[in-house]
Every structure is written in C-alpha cells, then in structure tokens.
Amino acid sequence: MTRWKLTLEYDGTAFLGWQRQAQGMTVQQALEEAAERFCGERPVAHAAGRTDTGVHALGQVAHLDIARETSAHTVQMALNQHLKGLPVVVLAAEAVGEAFHARFSARARHYRFRILNRRAPPALERGRVWWLPVPLDAAAMHDAAQHLVGHHDFSSFRAAECQAASPVKTLDRLEVTRLGEEIEVLAEARSFLHHQVRNMVGTLALVGRGKWQGRQVAAALAARDRKAAGPTAPPEGLYLVRVVY
Amino acid sequence: MTRWKLTLEYDGTAFLGWQRQAQGMTVQQALEEAAERFCGERPVAHAAGRTDTGVHALGQVAHLDIARETSAHTVQMALNQHLKGLPVVVLAAEAVGEAFHARFSARARHYRFRILNRRAPPALERGRVWWLPVPLDAAAMHDAAQHLVGHHDFSSFRAAECQAASPVKTLDRLEVTRLGEEIEVLAEARSFLHHQVRNMVGTLALVGRGKWQGRQVAAALAARDRKAAGPTAPPEGLYLVRVVY
Q: How does pLDDT run across B86-117, given as a tens digit for each residue?
C-alpha cells in the first residue's frame, strides 16, 4: 500500500465542490472513480481544502492509498487518462509516508480571490472572477485588510454551517493589489473557517466602494457576530492556489 | 446616422468565428442582433479581424452605423444588456467619423498565442491554450522566429482559402517568451494572411521540440509553398489582443 500525494488543478464551475454529494459530480468522486478505474478498488481521497461549488483550484492537494505498486509518473498519467472529459487534472504525484495527511499535515493554505473591476462584464473570464462594475479603491481595501491580519476570533467571518472546533485562527497575510482591471486578494493562513475568505472579501468590497471606512472592518471583527460583517463574495472568484506542508 | 467604433472581448469557443454563417452563432450575428434589439433596425457590423471558430478576442474592433441619437455610454450598456447570455462584451464604444472602417483603417494588429507546456493537460485553461506536453525550447523558437520578421512573401504560411490579393506582408514583431509553464508568442503586423499566425506557431513548435533547426524556418519561408512549412496550430491558443488605428 502506498500513500500518494496529488496536486490538483480544477475548474470549480463543473463540480459541486470537493466533497461527495448525492446530487451531482464532485472533485472527490471524480478522483476516486478515476483511481478505481486505474487500480480496481476505490480508495477514499482526502483534500487539504474542501472547496465549495464554483471554487477553483490551481494547487489543491489530496491524498489516497493505492495497493498496486506503481511509479509517480504512472499514477499521474493514469489518473489524468481516466479523468479525461472532466476539468480536473493531476499536476503532480508523489509517494509519501503513511503519516502524511493532506488536510491535517498542511502548515499553510494560500488562496487568491479575483475581482474584475470594470464597466463591461467578463466574456473570457466568466465564472472565473467576481465582476464588480463600480470603481473600487484597492489601496483602501488593502489598508482595511490589515485589521484582519493576526490571531483573532473570526466569528464575524464564519459561515453558520462551519464545523471548525474554534473560531480563533491566525491570518498570516491578506493583501489587496490592483493589476489593471483586476483586483487580486491574497490570503494565507494555516487554516481558514468555512467561507472566511469570501466573507472577508465581501466586507473589503464595501470599503473599496467607499460604503465603509477601514475602522468599520476592525469593529466588525471585534463584534464576533456574522451579522456585523459584509456579505459573502461569490465562489467564482476564489482559487485555492497552494498548500504548504 | 452615427458610426460607432466598438472594442470587443469574446470567448471564441462559443462562436463559429466572427463572420455570419448559416450553421450557427457567430460574433457578427450576435452583435448585429443586439444592435437591432437596441435600435430597431439591423446594421451590418465590420470587424478588424475576421477571427476563425475557437479564436478569442481581448480587443477586437468592429464598427456599425446607428441612426438613433445616443451616447457612447448608452451604446455600450445597451449592447451588453442585449448580449447577455453570450460570452461577448463591448469593452468600449466611441463615436467616429464616417471615414473610419474597422478593417481598412487599421494600422496594426496584435495577436497573442498561448501554449501550455507541461505534462498535465489544462483544467482551468481548457479551450484557451494549445496544450503541448513535450518540453519546448522557447529561446530556440524565438531565435527561429526572427527569420520571419520583415517584408516577405508568406505563401508558405498562408491558408489555401486565403482571399488576400497578395501573399506579401510585413511582419513587424514575432516574439516567443516562456512564462513558467506557458509559452507566449506575440505577433504584430499591419495585416496577416489567413491562418498566418497559427501556421507560424505550428512551425515554430517544430523548432521548440528540436525536430527542426532555426534555418529550416528560413528555408520554409523561401520555398513559398505551404507544404514546406509546419502544421497549423489549433485555434484555441490564439487571441486578437489589440488593433491600432
């Protein structure tokens, strides 16, 4: 039995998120079925981040155990062959020890959130960005974001259905940068609460529009109440970029 | 009657190219029908580049005449409203004189061709890049490309169905750059022959793989025979980026 660490890229538009669902195809199901077609038995796949419907991945990490003796190259090629037709691919495969767990061994997760900030809606990047036609002040968003960096109770940015034991997390980095018509938000932490990145982005967008001052973000954090912060940004702008072990 | 210059972005995957076709939706038809819904009569739209099926645009330029008196802002918003549901948007609208012609007034056209050069196929960029898993030498491709820059008879890179009066064109720029897993080819000229960029890219890919030497590209050009050059690269990597007037 070998444990394989897999790095995945996928288009979240095509899946009902990572985790298996009765209602439709998920990334987990696609990967497990591809592995079954390759090795004859269906393993259980575990991911670093259980992304929601519509959320994309440039570097999701999953692990699964395969009894058949094989090489990393064969695992990658065979899984990609069996995933053909679905917009998910294995970027890299690596044999790891049985102590490795994609979710629990992760030391940091890097997310990127893309906002298209122009009058015209997206044509090429439809489903890949959050379109906001009102001009946003990225510098004000960045300054406000710094109130959220650090060790805090993030209850105000936590989804009701979040299953984390504690709302206290350490946010290592939250940077907002304008790149032409796009605004990019980078978020790094050991782990995030459910919807935390999207709730932070939805709140920062209020600052970008001039509806909120930066200090209102600090007040929203201090309130420890979901109703005190801004709305949840849509999933299509969010990318799981990298997981660090 | 006002002539409007329109800058367009579109996802070529969704259209049978620019030009009207009996068999299905084209960008020209989508734009003309949107204009008709806006102003009651159907104008004829002319484009700077009659892109093929699958070819994308980040800055296509078209013009059309509208009798109704209106503002640039209204033209853009109304057309985008009526284009909703199709992946084509008006990035900018500008009133121009009746001497302006999107195709004949253009002084330069800038194309970009994207190659994804990695072992794993694209998930997020499917339909947006040419996937070539064999490692390519971008520096060798760039050096070979310089044989094509200048004033030449490009018959070797011309599609059989090309309607241009002459195969002689001036290629102002052909640059090949590696950006991580991607190779980007930039091509600039006053105008191009039909399939010229895709035929040049298909030929340069032979150099990138090491199948051809750079001087064979010069020999292919000198042969003035389509059979002397390499295959046509697929449309999905090609973007019309900008038209200069």
A: 999 999 999 999 999 999 999 999 999 999 99
Of A89, A118, A123, the CB nearest to B123: A89
How far does B123 lie from chain A, in Å, by closest CA? 4
CB B196 within 8 A of CB B113: no
**For A162, how many CA atoms within 13 A lie in the half-sphere containing its CB?**
21
Query: Residue A154 sits in a domain of what CATH number?
Result: 3.30.70.660
- A124–B9 C-beta distance less than 8 A: yes
ipTM of the modeled complex = 0.91
Question: What's the pTM value of the predicted model, to 2 decimals?
Answer: 0.95
If asked whether residues A92 and A148 sit together in one domain, one would say no
Asked whether residue B126 falls in the same domain as residue B234, the answer is: yes
Residues 6+ apart with CB under 8 A from A40: A68
Q: Are residues A30 and A127 in the same domain?
A: no
Are A124 and B56 in contact (CB < 8 Å)? yes
Q: Is residue A169 part of a domain?
A: yes
